[in-house]
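# nightly structure sweep
# worker-07 picked up a monomer target from the shared queue
# config: single-sequence mode, recycle default, output format = structure tokens
# input follows
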Amino acid sequence: MKSSDRIHQLWFSTISLTGTTMTADLGIYESEKDGNALLDLDLFCPAATVPLDDLTDAVARTDMTILGILTDQDRGTQLWEMFVVGAGTITEDPNETWDIVMTMNTETAVTAAAELVFEVFYTSGGN
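# output follows
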């Protein structure tokens, strides 16, 4: 996604994953062309928050947009502005491409194929 894209909703769902107790964080990284740097590991949802606290259970379609530090008032703001609400220190759009990334935590041991679905409702930014 462009750092100037405006995210309205970020939906996540999955079938039950086979394995040990699995947790994950949902955050943002720079894309490969912009350096692959971690920006905010859990901007959208930290691992301790339902539904990412135990992925061995199926997850019904869930709006992940405000399960982390963000609130309803942050919906529709540019992705870089959401980053500032989280942990960011930038003061203007860096005009980069960023990835929304689910980071599986170290205790994760998936023993079968899994299907994870992400849907992003957004308005394209200008850069």
